[in-house]
Task: structure prediction
Amino acid sequence: MGEIRRRLAYFLRKDRFARDLDDEMRLHVELRARKLSDAGVSDATAAARRQFGNRTVLLESSAELWGWGAWERLVHDFRIALRTLRKTPAFTVVAVLTLALGLGINTAVFSVVNTVMIRRLPYAEPGRLVSVWGEFFRNPPPGFVSPEAKWGGPARTNHSVAEFLDFRRDARGFESLAAFRSASGNLTGIGTPERIQGESITASFLPLLGVLPAQGRNFDTEEDRAGAGPVIILTHGFWQRRLGGDPGVLERSVVLDGKPHRVIGVLPPGFESPGQFEQTQPIEYYLPAAFTAKALADYGSRSIRVIGRLKPGVALAAAQAELDAVSAALDKEHSQHTNFRSVATPLQDDIVRHVGNPLLALLGASGLIVLITCVNVANLLLVRAAARRHETSVRFALGASCLRVVRQFLAESMVVAAAGCAAGIVLGQVLLHLLLAIAPTDLPRLAGLTMDWRVFAVATAVATVTGIAFGVTPAWQASRTRPVESLKTTARNIGSQSQARWRAVLTISEVALAMVLTIGAGLLLKSFVRLMGVDLGFEPERVLALNVNLPAARYGTREKRLRFFEQLAERVQGLPGVQAAAFANSMPLRGGWSTGIRLDISGETSIGTDAQAVSPGYFATMGIPLLEGRLLTAGDRDGQPLVAVVNREFVRRFLPNVDPVGRRLRWDEWVTIVGVVNDIRRSGKEQPVRPGLYVSAAQSTSNPVTLSDFAVRASGDPRRLVSAIQAQVWELDRDQPVTGVKTLAEMVSVSVSQRRFETLLLLVFAAVAVGLAVIGVFGVLSYTVSQRTPEWGIRIALGAAPSSILRLVIRQAGWLVAGGVSLGLCGAFALTRFLESMLFEVHRNDASTYLACVALLALVAIGASLIPARRGSKVDPMVALRYE
Amino acid sequence: MLILKTLARGGELHGFQIADSIQETSEDVLHVEEGSLYPALQRMLIKGWIIGEWGKTEENRRARYYKLTADGRKQLDSELERYGRVAQAIARIVQPA
Result:
């Protein structure tokens, strides 16, 4: 410790130190000289000096002992590196910008991956949290549609309350389990009526996540059962934004769906439920679970999601085994439970399950871009090292060690890397903002997107590795310079054979990497185009959809709800600019209702089909054409014969060789089929067409549905009708909020937003990669052409036609590009497997895409080589031969 | 080691005096290559075994006087002990059987 202090003290007094030591040594020599002359030695001073030794060397070695030796040499190297880089601004700027581009892209993408996938969840000890899903491992029951169907995942489903309670009782590996379910309600009494999102949770939910209300209390276990008074816990955001941070909030009530709920707690700021990560609308309140006695005993109705916290030290596999044991026991007791099992997955993985693969693929692509920029800069450095052959030779001749020279070159590349890293981080910030602007809104956890320490650490690490990677080759090349040869040759020599080989190798690898990225982008683009071409079966243009959720408190019966909607439809139909209006229990792209029915010709087997309850104007509003029979009319009401309209897929699957009109089907009562309409893709462009039937909203007594969706086809811009429609709603009911206003075209666009995002990103990456590769080819060829100018001069003087030089250069370019393209094709064959989950109806080795990409890249690269080729062919022999 | 021992015996000495003292005490058998004294002194200064203070010689010349520290004394003791062991070992080998 004292040693370090002393060494630091030396730093501060370096010049004085040298002078002092010099004084000391001089004194010593004088005293020795005097003593020697006293003893009679002739020429005592010289003798004394000889006896002493070389003062300068001693001064240096003393200073070196004090100084930090290796560190000072390093600093020296960096200072020299900065100086030489400043002297060649063109090279420095190009190298730094190229690096910044690659690092910037990488940093931005990694920031997203970090925020979405790597950062731990904001709960206590998130490693022990798991999400418990149900799966049907054989045949799903008829009419089952997994909530995961949107993503193409396994047929997962929620649990029933009774199952949850059994888990709680029997699965010992869990420290605690909690259940939750999303809820929504009309908020009235505070500002304009609005429909807000919330969750209904068990008392164990908040403690399981390690959170408790900042004010007030959590729910009690009694409130898990129905019968306790209506209470509510608010989020911090709700308290601040809607109640203005009222300090007396715990005395207030909040009116939801017409019922006042007593506020018993307010959560701390920054808390997000795991269910929030899949929703774009913020969750603003929490209700107690309030399971009814019926729900507690029902194993069939699966409405809740389950999360759990493992006991410390309990492995996931052990907990899964316990769940399986409980499932097996339930299988025996309850028929509704067969072929169902519960699966536990870590909560962190669960939340990002949909976007994990595409994000990692994007990260891989951005890694490829970093590689390309490395190769580019390495090429630049190689050329530069070749130009500095003379300097290096002189150094060797003066006695520099190999290590010293290599260190110098590495210092230069590290400075470039450091500058590139800094610029890259800045660029990354900018790109991150752009990324946020175009990212699909349902990307989980995106709200907290920032660059944290991991991002900087990764950026620095990548920059360091790339600095070493692209610095090592030129440095090693330079260290092998033979001073004798280099000092003898003139500028005509473009460097040794091995240097040229390295340049060729680097350029070929650049082109190969660009090829891989281009093919990836091409495949995604083709997928996207195919996707957009998918016919939805209805016409979403100029259709406005909105939600009107009537609270049960005021609209307790089906008749009341039906009457509201019928009146609304009539009024809206009368508005100017409205072509058609309709209502239903839910619109396309907004989910639906599936059920099991029995056909009269199929006996008692239950068939699964989608179903919807719609108003007569529905088909006109949606633009669904009629194929056979008739549509539903206003005459199909209660008291009239029950009718239904089916779609073509229904007929194709269940009534293939039979005239569907006139056939009957039933849930509880017999319904007659009166018409066939076109198929529609209810859940989006990527989902297969499912059989569906439509019943009249005025008639659905057997399966009472909650009407809530309203749609309007406008003759002009549908958005202009929003306030008029809202006014009509408020005329019917002052407290009724209108929510979820969107045009159907928007909803279609949102449903493909993730794909669009991925495709766009990869296209940008591919463009950058191709650009860089082209610059690389261009740079290398320019350099070789200019170095071979005297050769062109001689050829032309000897009678060669300029076109032959052109052909020569292009042939050289051709070899480079061909090598790169073939290498790239091999890479593409190997790597496109990682894109498979992102493709839509396109095979990962789709021949036409590959061919198109090869042609594109080859054309562009060879096109870039035309410029230096033309320059070479236009050389004036007199100028060239005099150019030395 | 010799420098340390000289300082242990002598109190405060400047560079020339140390060199002279070693030469005299060893009866001219050991000549310290005078210049190499100074890097050695620097090393010991760094390690904190001696400290140097500026003072004046009898002729009023500016010189740096070195003194042993407590750490230096410990270092000297351990070095002397090591030297003693080595000397014994050599003596045992060289002794006529």
